[in-house]
Design brief:
It is built from 12 helices and 16 strands. A hairpin with a 2-residue loop joins strand 15 and strand 16. It folds into 2 domains: 194 residues, Response regulator (Rossmann fold), CATH 3.40.50.2300; 160 residues, Rossmann fold (3-Layer(aba) Sandwich), CATH 3.40.50.2300. The radius of gyration is 24 Å and the shape is globular. By secondary structure, it is of the alpha/beta class.
Amino acid sequence: MKRPGSVVWSVVCCLLLACSVSARAAEGIKVGVVLPLTGTEAQFGEIEWNSFQLALDEINGAGGIKGKPIELVKEDDTGKPDVGRSAMEKLITQDKVVVVGGGYSSSVTFAMAAVAQQRQVPFVVNTGSDDKITEQKWNYVFRLNPPASEYPKALNSFLGEVVKPQTVAILYEKSNFGQSSSKSFAAQCEKMGLKVVLKEGYDSGAVDFKPLLIKVKAANPDLLYMVSYLMDAGLLMRQSKELDINPRLFVGGGAGFTLPGFYDNAGKAADYVFSATLWTETVPYPGAKAYFDKYQKKYGHPTEYHGAEAYACMYVIADALKRAKELTPAAVQEALVHTDVMTAFGPVKFVSYDKKTQQNKLPTYLVQWQGGKLETVWPKEIATKPAVYPVPKWSERK
């Protein structure tokens, strides 16, 4: 004969078991994201983290993946390789994520990629652009953004078809990105028959570029090409104005020259500055303008290519999770290998070419600051405004 409380106890046990099963079913799929959320690169980290979150809300709002929500576990790399390395170790060994996205600065991204490969957890890079990141034959590392050497592709065609300069000066920050970008652009100048009259690097965070810019003025180039992050980019332009340096055009190699904060820092000295870019809201990709509008509405300021990279990265990861045979790092890696998806940033398909493996290939674009707004000027078919060239001399500006 059963004791009076046994039936109640059985019901309680069943309820507890059901709750446990339900809880496990509702557990999120852990995805790591590593970005610079503090430090000198935090402006980029913020715009990218916001974009990851925007995409996450859409994906989870549509039912998540295989009935489960995605749970983002974020880590701040502070812009330092050793911190990024530790963040990747934590995500893999403690948080047990099945895949990691992010990766802003090239030096930090390279350090994290080495850990991901060693631990065999897939890493989808969305910004770190040093060419060598996908030249190590690492099969757990994927990159959706173009490598640094390909950033100036649209600029190169603009120079060849429109500007036809003779001389070039190149200034670059001594980061992995700066060195890789400047080296590849100098090589392209040589192919185009342009004479590089000055090529010099500088340490990030300099408080006075005038000694360097005096050399630029003495060289009197047709084109001044700069690879700089946000604060340096603004200071370079303000001091170029003070020294009355007047090339036929100023060009930034992406990075700090496309952020809204560039105009805030440089003021009217930002006007007419061109920049290579990987994306604008006018690109002919489904969802590009919608992403731009949603971001501006939610966060109160415009986004640009760094944000679009992160937004697309979240969708690429979600696509791989959906197709993976099981939710393990090995299965997700296998799914990523076969990625073929359209995003707001463009088509994503990881291929091998030259020395690169698991690298996405995309076109690039040219933008120009005009009246405080970043306008797409090249290629012509997606331009929002015609390019202003040659740029007016400082003495001719209002």
